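Hello,

Following up on my earlier ticket. Below are the two sequence lines again, exactly as submitted.
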Amino acid sequence: MKPFAILLCGCLFACTVENPDRPLPELDRTYFDRAVQPVFARRCAFSDCHGTPRRFFSIYARGRYRLPNALDVDGEPIGIMGDITRRELDLNYERALGFVDPNEPGKSQIVLKPLAEEAGGLYHRASELYAYDLDVFLDPSDEDYAVLVRWVFGGAPCEDGGGRCEVPERDVPTE
Amino acid sequence: MIRALAVLPLVVLLLAPRAADAFSTAGYYRGNAWSGGGDDRPFTGARRWRGYGCPICHVPAADPPRFVLDSDPPSLAREGVYTPEQRYLITVAFFPETLPTPLDADPAIPAGNGFAAEIAGASGDEPAGDLSPCVTGIHCPGSVDRCDPDLCGEGLPASTPAVQTLADGTAVVVEASGATSWQFAWTAPPRGAGELTLHVAAVDGNSDRDPTGDAVAVARISLQEGAGAAEASAWVLCLAPAALRWRRRR
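Thanks for your patience. The regenerated structure is below:
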């Protein structure tokens, strides 16, 4: 009985804890579309990884996981190899922001989870799923990793020419 | 073919159930990721690709395919031993095909069968030796293409689409098709390369043009450096002891 009472008190106390919503940070959207999305597609969006609705952080990418029932600009189903849609990019961007700590960008999960623990990263199940037990980024020198870091720190807009903005501006969907 | 199967011990190569992104055309391997390509990654399961193989994208809904490795000379696949600078013809074949092409399938749509392979050096990251597709494309009776015309008549009963290498020549991939066997050539590195690893990943597609419902397998085979002279050529089906490790996830 005593443990139950303690548990009940704990629950009641927990209900009174302030846990307000936090606004999402605002990070460079153009840089996301042209530099971060290619990194997601290349390193994260496989269907066995984050290219699935089973993941809390699921990612859409061309040739990988697609937004169910998504249509192209002509109203036709996009198919797995259809161009990425604006809606898919919007969802990827918003979900990614949820893993960014605006107060301490360097501690954002989006940069710590895929980095090997030996290099200072956090536990990431991807490091256990395949042969060799390697995480996505073995160390911070990985160019794709640098793109994520630049983004969460709010730097390297595409206009600077040094941010690895792979996607030509003309290929970023506008609607 | 039947005689060969009866006489030779077959070793079934690994089976790693689950599917990954196999691409319907070899060109997809070379395409950039943001446009749906593989960024020149073959997904063979090698260390330099973090161990990612076909199952990273292909979601398996069928038992993993069984495939056999064949080599000429045979010691490579049968004994896991290579002779420095020896040229080998290597055959990858489903045995049998797990998901045959439906009879009512659209002939214009590839069945989605394919494989990718590479041979890594002792470090696990650097490719070893030289891979080459069967560019000479010898067409044998029964629509079987071989690197070596002497092999005609002893091969496996399937057509062989052109095997291609990645842009840097470090891995071989194929056009997805209804084929169930493929062949490529590999020249072993000079003496002193030490233990190598052959990585093979294969998809037995279910003809639906997406990465779901396929049968997928990944294998790793250790190759030891031998000291002997080149062996006599022989065409045999053989199994290599597969040092495989596959993990069931979830």
